Amino acid sequence: MNDPAAAADPGQRAALATLQGLLTSGETLEAWAAQRRVYALTHRRVCIAATSGRFISLTRWLFGGYDSADIRWQDLQETRISAGIIAADLTLIARSSSDLNLGAEVNRVWTFEGLNKDQAQAMYRICQQHDQIWREKRRVRELEELRAKSGGVQISGASAGYASTDAAGTESEPTRRLRQAREMLDAKLISDAEFESIKAKIVSGL
């Protein structure tokens, strides 16, 4: 966002200034949403934000100060939205660990009620985008681990043309993995460095 504070009221601008101060080097604010006043009659409004690296919630104290919490995108498991005429509720479910692996873990469930509808919908879209990116990364990681457990297969020529087939004329497993990695790179789901790392492991039979 070019100027997140442009459409904010004075209270929201103070919260946004605090959010900006929480950003790390290179981290950018992608969207934010604030609780509508009518839903926060007994407490200070909650402000949430989506950045390039995580989801942040911010609750200001009544007499100064604030509480903040965050969810890294790789930990996000599910995002839900329930929208009415003027407001929306946003729920995030996140894994308790920050590992790429899936497993039996205790999930964190955060629900934010009475958010500005348009802001909440923008937040939902961004959460979904980051969720999809990390689902693909976890899927590739799982394929890597399954391949490593199977002992690996040495391949020749596949790293150059990505066109190795077995005796039956079907696409071999290493070639399929290389093709999927190339598709993810083309779709900008992984970086050049990540692609080269995946390719090196496949070629070496890991």
Percentage of β-strand residues: 15-25%
How far from one another are the termini?
42 Å
Q: Look at the structure and give the mean pLDDT.
A: 77
The tally of strands reads 7
> What structural class results from the helix and strand content?
alpha+beta
Biggest beta sheet attributes: 4 strands, antiparallel
Query: What shape does the CA trace take?
Result: elongated
Q: Give helix and strand order, one letter per element, not per position.
A: HEEEEEEEHHHH
Unreliable sequence segments: 1-6, 98-104, 153-167
Structural commentary:
The protein is α+β, with helices and mostly antiparallel strands and 206 residues long. The protein folds into 2 domains: 4-132, PH-domain like; 150-203, no CATH class. It is built from 5 helices and 7 strands. It has a 4-stranded antiparallel beta sheet with strand order 1-2-3-4, with helices on both faces. The protein is elongated, with a radius of gyration of 22 Å. Mean pLDDT is 77; it is low at 1-6, 98-104 and 153-167.
